[in-house]
Amino acid sequence: MKNGKSIIVVSLCTFALTYYMRNKSFQKLQQKNTNPTINQYLNRLREFFEVDILDQAEDEFLTLVDFGLSPNSAFESTIGYK
User: 20 to 30 Å CA-CA from 36: which of 6, 22, 70, 79?
Assistant: First the structure.
């Protein structure tokens, strides 16, 4: 009987661990990142600036990010958001 009980215990532990890991991975899939990346902000600058001054706007945005501003604040500052 000891052998049968150990197989049951091992099976239950394996099932519990598999269930836990599956739920964790499912939760990670459902999490959404709402913060745009720097490349997405650079693409958004095209909506606000013409082609001839787009390079200047991108340089200003990247400079502000390099100085430590968050990408959101740098984007708003670059487009003149008030």
Answer: 22
Q: Could you say which DSSP state residue 31 is in?
A: -
3-class DSSP assignment, residue 36: coil
Q: 3-class DSSP state for residue 34?
A: coil
Neighbours of 17 (CB within 10 A): 10
Number of domains in the chain: 2
Whether the CB-CB separation of 43 and 35 falls below 8 Å is answered with: no
pLDDT tens-place string over residues 28-80: 666 666 788 899 999 999 999 998 999 999 999 999 999 999 999 999 999 98
Q: Do 74 and 61 contact (CB within 8 A), yes or no? A: yes
- Give the integer Cα–Cα distance in Å for 71 and 9: 52
Residues 55 and 24 placed together within one structural domain of the fold: no
